[in-house]
Amino acid sequence: MQGNVRKLFLPFLLSLTLMITLLVSVGFEATAQSGATETPTSSPEDRPNRNDPAVFYGEPAVATGDAEWTLGERTFESFYPNGFTFTIEASSSAGAIESATVVWSHAPRNITRRAAEFDEESGRFVATWPGIAEASIPPWVAVNYQWRFTDEAGNTYVSEWFTGEEYYITDEEWSRYESEDIIVFVEGTLPEETGQMTLDAMAAQRETYRQAWGSLLSNKPRAILFGSRDSWNRWRRGTENPNVIGQTSSEWGGIAQVVSRGGIEDLTYGTVLHEVGHLYQNEFAPSGFPAGTWWIEGNATFFELYQQYDYEQRVRDVAAAGQLPPLLDGSGPGATGRGPDGRGRFGYDVGYTFWKWIVMNYGLDAHRQIIEGVGRNRLRNEVLEEVLGMPIQEIESAWRVWLGASPTAPTLIPTPTIRIPPTVTPFGQ
């Protein structure tokens, strides 16, 4: 299952994305047409899946006007962490090219563009992105790109997508692993087995992901795994925060992580699976998972195969002490705040137990139905009542009793069911 393992020596960068602060152990914490013949509107199932790289990057070249366009040699060069440069030879039969732009994409549906200048000496159009001086983008993200031109007569040309480049590093030793589930880049300072362990963890969870979400991710994710703080900090702008050990982004289609005190098993069988869960949330229910809540982080935690400690037992202990707070009344506990036991990341753990209780009693199909409901921006509690077949108060009581708590929370005050708002950033802090 290990793909071609090859040593790569190159630099990396990272685009503007939302940050996921992973908390280490206990201490850290996306009408019928009128007329002579009625044409029904296509259903979502009939529309092309633009999260699929074959669809998004499969668009052909497009031209307007009557010019004949010629593209010559083109290049891509990475200077991690200081960006990358594109060059191309291009001409139009209708006259001089007045504007040239390169558009690049690290993952489907996400693009960045930069105007190019004509270099008289080389006879090429050149566009450069400065990397760390402008944004934080990790190394090894995909760089797929297309060129767009307008000549002096107003004719335009958009090239096909050129795929397969990566924001490579030349001054560090890295290894590349790939399976049907994931592409993994491992810094040379990490143990040799790290890459294969990541492939194995993703293979072990493949069918769980498929059943829980209805299908696998459209775009194969990337995991970029760092072995030291020094290498991790090279691509990050701003103040160094030792509590931040990872960042996940649908904009560049993957996760970047630095090994923490949890070690390699926690990194591969815990953190990677958790963060891939966030990528699923963003693709299948981007409006259904507000950042910073027990709902989003508990769901991602459910997919971990390695736990830093016994999350369920921690919540059972809180329940046994008569301190289990309301969950479904209002927004419930925050993800990273301290619980009644004085320990952090309570929302992660209490949220995990709720998702586990659902799957244990109703199966992964119930998880999928809930995702489909909240993904349409429906009320969370309304969806839970429909899928689980009982009023929200009974759902909360059944979950509480399963944990060993009283059926009713100590200070349960009924409030209106909240609506989960759309969020561009579906990841918790």
Description of the structure:
This protein has helices spanning 53-56, 194-213, 229-233, 263-284, 294-302, 311-320, 346-362, 364-374, 380-388, 392-403, and strands spanning 7-9, 62-64, 69-78, 84-92, 97-107, 110-115, 117-119, 124-129, 142-151, 156-158, 162-166, 173-178, 183-187, 222-226, 246-249, 254-258. The strands form 3 sheets. The protein has a 6-stranded mixed β-sheet with strand order 1-12-13-14-16-15. Strands 2, 5, 6, 9, 10 and 11 form a 6-stranded antiparallel β-sheet that branches. The longest helix is centred in the middle third of the chain and has 22 residues, at 263-284. Among the domains are: 54-166, Immunoglobulins (Immunoglobulin-like, Sandwich); 292-421, no CATH class. The two termini are 33 Å apart. It has 429 residues and is of the alpha+beta class.
Q: Would you tell me the structural class of the helices and strands?
A: alpha+beta
* String of helices and strands: EHEEEEEEEEEEEEHEHEEHHHHHHH
Alpha-carbon Rg, integer: 24 Å
Query: What profile does the largest beta sheet have?
Result: 6 strands, mixed
Beta percentage is: 15-25%
Question: What's the layout of helices and strands?
Answer:
Blueprint: E1 7-9, H1 53-56, E2 62-64, E3 69-78, E4 84-92, E5 97-107, E6 110-115, E7 117-119, E8 124-129, E9 142-151, E10 156-158, E11 162-166, E12 173-178, E13 183-187, H2 194-213, E14 222-226, H3 229-233, E15 246-249, E16 254-258, H4 263-284, H5 294-302, H6 311-320, H7 346-362, H8 364-374, H9 380-388, H10 392-403
Parallel strand pairs: 13-14, 14-16
Antiparallel strand pairs: 1-12, 2-10, 3-4, 4-8, 5-6, 5-9, 7-8, 9-10, 9-11, 12-13, 15-16
